[in-house]
Amino acid sequence: MFDKLEAVERRYEEIGTRMTDPTVIGDSNLLMSLMKEHREIEPIVDKYREYKKAKSDFEGAKEMLEIGGLDKELKELAEEEMLTAKAAVESISEELKILLLPKDPNDSRNVVVEIRGGAGGEESALFAASLYRMYTMYAESRRWKVELVGVNETELGGFKEVSFMVEGEGAYSRLKYESGVHRVQRVPETETQGRIHTSTVTVAVLPEAEEVEIEINPADLQIDTYRAGGAGGQHVNKTESAIRITHIPTGLIVECQDERSQYKNKDKAMKVLRSRLYERMVSEQNEAIAGERKAQVGTGDRSERIRTYNFPQGRMTDHRIGLTLYKLDQIMNGDIDDIVDALITYYRTEMLKQSGDEQ
Q1: 167 φ, ψ to 5°?
Q2: For labelling alongside 302, which of 19, 59, 183, 348 has CA 20 to 30 A away?
Q3: Cα 141 versus chain centre, distance
Q4: Separation CA 129–CA 112 (nearest Å)
Q5: Is 263 buried (19+), middle (13-18) or exposed (0-12) by CB count in 10 A?
Q6: Following DSSP, what letter does each residue of 164-180 receive, concatenated?
Q7: Mean pLDDT of 315-342
Q8: φ, ψ dihedrals at 243, nearest 5°
Q9: pTM of the model
Q10: Residue 239's pLDDT is what?
């Protein structure tokens, strides 16, 4: 581990020197790439330097005690410093193991989120709209940019389906845990008997793919235009600006009607299509790997119920880690950091166990 940390520190210093080179400064693409790498490895280097300082303090205090000749007060100070430094070395060592775990290559990407009503009819559509609001409020709290791609509304204001893009630092690394089936238990507004109904909503979080990663042959696309429309006559355009793209080899269909410009709708639809094809490619690669790790996150298995939102009891339960929180109102208003942080900690711990088993 420490050989790797030394190599990372050397690389960090090398990048820092290169970023001051006039030829690098003149190449904006190279400079941006180096700055990104520098920023990504900086937490590891800072923590490693913290470790080396604690290790030095421990060895210094130990040496003083071994030499001897200290008066009672100095001896007690040295013993206290040695114990404190030893605890810090052990604690920082565990933190370094986590920082050195393999990174998900998609973590720095923007995302496409797709929410679809499942079992439960209108109540499911209404909850899909509630989840959309929850994610947009969460994105706003983290200063991410949200762009609506397309929405299929119901008469009561629910969403049969809605897709949107989220751009910002760490968007995929935190939202990827939301992929799966979300279950809601509550009394619908349309329920006269006061009975609790159970409905489901499916969420898919796709990393945005770059054009260079997914090449799409224009001949494989069927592109149709139509007039945008919604429930109650909302969002109706007089021109055919809405776009439907069918990827003939896979049968994937993407629609976008949020923009009034046909060109902008096509651009957004192509981004979503590229992301879906990228996810399919990654899923196929994962399935081809023998003994795929149980701790792997973001495999897109949407058949599994990941979370229940129980409104009568004001609680949210994440079934993957057995986490229950009694603050449903705050969660539905976008306060989901506690859930995401707990999931990150759980999966990192699982990966640490597996890396330990393999050594």
Answers
A1: -120, 130
A2: 348
A3: 15
A4: 16
A5: exposed
A6: EEEESTTHHHHHGGG-E
A7: 94
A8: -125, 135
A9: 0.67
A10: 53
